[in-house]
Amino acid sequence: MSDAQDAQNGYHGVSLATLRRFGVDVWSDVEIETSRGAFRGIILPRSEFDDSTHLVLKLKTGYNIGIEIRTITAIVELGKTEAHYKIPEKDFPVSPEKPSVTLLGTGGTIASRLDYRTGAVIPAFSPGELYGAVPELADICNLTTEKLFAVFSENMGPQEYITLAKAVGAEIEAGVDGIVIGHGTDTMHHTASALAFMVQTPPVPVVMVGSQRSSDRPSSDAALNLIYAMTTAATSDIAEVMVCMFGSTSDEYGLLHRGTRVRKMHSSYRSTFRTIGDIPLAAVTRAGVRPFRSDYNRRRDDREVGIHPFFEERISLLYYYPNMHPDIIDSLVDNGYKGIVIAGTGLGHVNKSIYPAIERAVSAGVAIYMTVQTLWGYVHMFVYDTGRDLMAKGVIPTENMLPEVAYIKLGWALGQTDDLDRVQEIMLTAICSEITEREPHDGYLVFQGGMPEIEEFLKKVNR
Ligand code: ASP
Fold first, then answer.
1. Same domain, 120 and 205
2. Which of 185, 198, 229, 458 is 20 to 30 Å apart from 53, CA to CA?
3. Do 139 and 181 share a domain, yes or no?
4. Can 109 be counted among the known catalytic residues?
5. pTM of the model
């Protein structure tokens, strides 16, 4: 069978020749000998994100691993697993009284694997496929989908942010009631802040969603996250760029986070997104959205939205570490970088030995901004000599802007102007809560764990 035929059958060009050479096939339960050791698991069809040099094996633990084909020395088939590769595609029911939502796809786990019942690994994206996999979606809205990219989120960057912002603008003008953006979780907070700056005061919710676990795993968060995100887009009064993801480690609710205050905080938990330096915007269940606060941009009937699609790519985010050498900064300047955000220690510090490099950078016209690697709290550069010295050299503190957000905002600001005074004005003027007047302590205490976890923890401590 040719690769093209395989692709039509849903195999996406998996190198079946390799499999057949060892007398096995997709869905074989196998023991694979490789030069790196032996592995036991089920051979999965390749998703559209995978390459042809790896074979994807589902281990007993539920994790999928990629095995480099050239390292394989033998494969023994132990059995076969029944699996349905294709999910039933059903016509998405349209009811005139339901709100209309557009799902813009960029890729990531949620787009590549969404069948939470059949256990198959599939790319589900059209409304019909999504309806086949998650029928509840039809109770929420009339759905349209548009696939903009199919990339893991580490491959998102300035060009994609701009395309996405323009697509959001076009959907708003076309009259949708809400927009959902399917995105890989790894860099969702970068894209969320880019969109928050590029799409200001939208009249409808713009909700980013992803999943930490693919839908072929029993603990997948894909379907619930999607239900929560669609519910938000269709019904929420909060019209901002938000991230909607699992709230607690149980599946009781999702949380809505502001695009400029959210961060991925755990590499594998489903409740990985946290609002930093504030409390989240709202909780969302199947019943609807429950705001925690009232200071948000409200849904409107008009179609007015300012799209500001700018980005200067030659900017950098430097995570300071003790013993950083000045040549790191020199090399950025020599390579024509226009702006640097430093994530400094404590209140916003770096070591003395890089001062001269900072001075050289500032006099070469490079904009340097300071954030804190503690994430919570403000940059305070008046407290110690180090901070005062750095400010005297031209380093500008950015209040409580998160390092990644300051990085994105600097790219966005320098994309609009080379005038560094204007850049500073843009950087230090809060546009969508990237800088806030104060950080509530309950946000720090409660929402880092999720309320049920805190209660459980306290029960144990008080026992
Ligand atoms: N690596 C993936 C991504 O960020 C993980 C995910 O989809 O959540 O695209």
1. yes
2. 185
3. yes
4. yes
5. 0.83
